[in-house]
Amino acid sequence: MIFYYNREGIGDILITYLKEGGLRKFERRGDVSEIFEAETGEVLGYNFFNASTYLPLDHKEGLIKANQDFISRLNEKLLSYGFSERIINNDRPFIVTGYVLKSEKHPDSDHMHVCKVDVGPEQLQIVCGAPNIEEGQKVVVAKVGALMPDGMVIRPSVLRGIASDGMICSARELGLPGAPQKRGILTLDPATAVGQDFYQLLPR
To answer: Could you say which of 31, 40, 44, 89 would form a disulfide bridge with 49 (CB–CB 3.0 to 4.6 Å)?
Structure first.
């Protein structure tokens, strides 16, 4: 679940991604547009228009960290327009802090590395093509199932014959304001604890 707001770029609209889907359809009622899969009717997300009039969005841009009060306000809006679905606050993080335990050159690539990354409850093998990846770094990891700000869902993959279960993220991939456009992962303070919800570390 991702909440994204960029008033200068797209207007006073809160974009809410819930899950990936196929062919999409839309239904708008008042200030809310529900996005759902055409074949199954499963809700994939919402656009909340004129969002700053009922949400605390002053001076906020990019990814929004939603607490229970924020989600309750959204659900009140859905109820007021007669939508039957509600947004559930899923506290299981998919984008977390990690520690690069090991990084080795990919056997079939000049630029990729095969990394072993500790994300708290588990260790993941992730193939990373960033030029600045190194052992001992604290990084941001999108686990399998994560929904990225651009709508991409992280899936298990095989890159040149090597399995990869996740993605080590750049600031741009995380949708952070002012993120550099050049290639390279985001590295964190070495004191950062492993396995935390990354978005909980951002300034409120």
So the answer is: 31
pLDDT tens digits for range 36-79: 999 999 999 999 999 999 999 987 877 787 888 999 999 999 99
Rounded CA-CA distance 140/151 in Å is 18
Helix (H, G, I), strand (E, B) or coil at 67: coil
Cα distance between residue 47 and residue 45, in whole Å: 7
Which residue shows structure tokens 């055409």? 38
- Kindly list the strands in the beta sheet with 167-168, ordered across the sheet, starting from the edge strand earlier in the chain: 123-128, 113-118, 95-105, 138-142, 167-168
Q: 110: Cβ–Cβ under 8 A, 6 or more apart, which residues?
A: none
**DSSP alpha helices (H): ranges in the chain?**
7-10, 68-80
Sign, CA dihedral 160-162-164-168, equals negative
Task: Report the greatest alpha carbon distance in the chain.
Answer: 57
Amino acid identity for residue 202 in this structure: L
The pLDDT of residue 58 is 84
Q: Which of 198, 121, 106 is nearest to 160 (CA)?
A: 106
Rounded alpha-carbon distances, angstroms, from residue 201 to 40, 96, 122, 197, 204: 36, 10, 20, 7, 9
**Could you please report the per-residue DSSP string of 123-189?**
EEEEEE--TT--TT-EEEEE-TTPBPTTSPBP--EEETTEEE-SEEPPTTTTT-TT---SS---B--
Q: In this structure, which amino acid lies at residue 203?
A: P
